[in-house]
User: What shape does this take?
Amino acid sequence: MLGNIKAAFVRESSFRYDANFKLTVLILHTIMKIIFLLQISIVHTIAQPIIWRSNFNVSNEGQFLASVKKVEMVKFNTCNS
Assistant: This one.
């Protein structure tokens, strides 16, 4: 009996079901787009400066090591002369 009631309900409200389904899909798609754009903006505002900072530190470390090598070369040259 429940199956007959359900089938009759679906037959009578099939147009409303399709319209509601399309509206639901549209709303969910819009929400997913908004979440995706928020994720992109969060990555650019939080993660990107961290990446830049880590790259900056790596370059500073390289410059520091290069300056240490220059100092060692200068010390070695002054000791020999």
Helices lie at 2-12, 14-80. The radius of gyration is 33 Å. DSSP finds two helices and no strands in the chain.
